[in-house]
Design brief:
Blueprint lengths: L7 H7 L11 E5 L2 E4 L4 E4 L2 H4 L8 H11 L12 H12 L5 E5 L2 H18 L7 E5 L8 H6 L16 E4 L4 H7 L4 E6 L2 E2 L5 E2 L2 H14 L2 E5 L23 E4 L10 E5 L1 H4 L15 H14 L2 H25 L2 E7 L2 E6 L7 H10 L2 E2 L1 E2 L4 E4 L7 H20 L2
The structure holds pyridoxal-5'-phosphate.
Pyridoxal-5'-phosphate binds next to helix 5.
């Protein structure tokens, strides 16, 4: 009568092999620590890829889940619900936006944004205003439309024929945008910091120039803040660190703190061009997800937590610099707030995966962003002593890594 005890080998047997998970299976989390099946403890510098922004089992969020879980989980979208309306108001009160659409993931938020941009283009009265400008190395999700908009052909080429009318340009190249944009363009989609593409921040001048071109050609500017939003960079959204305001903002990841939810935010002018029946989702904006996200939002949207991101960011960067002085593995540390990318130097080129494997063995979880970049996206409220302990462990990992070969 022993219950079935899953093992890592079961993954290979049962799961479609699109992931290559670590050898251990996490079973429990608390704050910025995780424990595996054997009771081994790990410091979490990954935070579910910028999702667990308040760590694991934050009491306020757990409470919101339990409270809503005992009230109402789901209603059909023939009905609205209180948690969705409360969350919508919070998102609107804290941004340029006046209208919200809820969905379940980042890809769905971008899918909605791109479809809305096409609809707005159609309604503009300008013939064929349906071209989308996106950027090399961008990541916008895995639906066919969003993966085609993303800027890494290896993620989309096997699924052709792909949606048409999407052009990819070099990131941060304003001249390229100027040359490509026209009356036929309906949208430009940008990550203010490319996350999956290697933690590459957009230049302010580039963003300002793109905004001007979008205004000139009546093009919707979409900011994909699925990774950079919800306090990750030290302000509630990364666009708030810039003089630029987008027309559409997409968020997900940290919005639910680990509960699946995404959102597309926009102005009245554009939001109302989606009309009854134009778009939809069964789960999107369900009361359980929105209640959890509402609690996450309230905790993150405080000066205390946002200032804490910049303080912790400094600790991270100083700790990385200190380790790097000893081991000389990185040539550059970039990003903002608690979205940090460390670029390997030529001697260790493309070996980021080995580093995070050693790190996990030493009890600290880290992430890659492509083969050449070690990435950190920890909880925004990770305790100082977890940061210290995490870097002691990372030091042991780098010692082993640099001694190899
Ligand atoms: C993670 C991510 C997405 C996709 O989100 P999903 O929830 O996995 O669909 C889209 N854009 C960016 C910038 C992301 O980081």
């Amino acid at each position: 009568m022993n219950p079935y005890q899953p093992s890592r080998e079961d993954f290979d047997q049962y799961m479609i092999p699109i992931y290559s998970p670590a050898p251990m299976i996490p079973v429990r989390g608390q704050g910025s620590r995780l424990w595996d099946q054997g009771g081994r403890e790990y410091i979490d510098f990954v935070g579910g890829i910028a999702v667990n922004a308040l760590g694991h089992l934050h009491p306020i969020v757990v409470n919101a889940l339990i409270e809503q879980g005992q009230k109402l989980w789901h209603v059909a979208n023939g009905f609205t619900n209180e948690p969705a309306l409360r969350l919508a108001k919070k998102l609107i009160d804290s941004t340029f936006a006046e209208k919200v659409f809820f969905c379940n993931s980042g890809a769905e938020a971008n899918e909605a944004a791109l479809k809305l941009a096409r609809k707005v283009g159609l309604k503009s009265g300008i013939a064929n205003k349906n071209k989308i400008i996106a950027f090399n190395n961008a990541f916008h999700g895995r639906t066919l439309f969003t993966v085609s908009t993303g800027g890494q052909a290896k993620y989309s080429q096997d699924f052709a024929p792909l949606p048409e009318g999407i052009e990819h340009l070099p990131f941060n190249d304003l001249a390229a945008v100027k040359a490509a944009i026209s009356d036929q363009t309906c949208a430009v989609i940008i990550e203010p910091i490319q996350g999956e593409g290697g933690v590459i921040p957009a230049d302010i001048e580039f963003l300002k120039g793109v905004r001007q071109l979008c205004d000139q050609y009546k093009v919707l500017l979409i900011f994909d803040e699925i990774q950079t939003g919800m306090g990750r960079t030290g302000s509630l959204y990364a666009y708030m660190n810039t003089p630029v305001v987008p027309d559409i903002l997409t968020i997900a990841k940290a919005l639910g703190g680990g509960f699946p939810i995404g959102a597309m935010l926009t102005t009245d002018q554009f939001g109302k061009q989606f009309v009854f029946g134009d778009h939809g989702t069964t789960y999107g904006g369900n009361p359980l997800a929105c209640a959890v996200a509402g609690a996450v939002f309230d905790v993150i949207n405080t000066q205390d937590v946002l200032d804490g991101v910049l303080f912790r960011s400094k600790l991270f960067v100083e700790s990385i610099q200190k380790l790097n002085a000893q081991y000389q593995v990185f040539q550059e540390i970039r990003g903002k707030g608690l979205l940090i990318g460390c670029v390997l130097n030529a001697h260790y080129a493309n070996r980021a995966k080995e580093i995070i494997t050693f790190a996990a063995e030493e009890g600290v979880m880290a992430l890659i962003a492509g083969p050449n970049i070690v990435r950190f996206t920890p909880s925004l409220i990770i305790p100082e002593n977890d940061i210290q302990e995490g870097f002691i462990r990372l030091g042991r990992a780098l010692a082993r890594f640099t001694q190899e070969k």
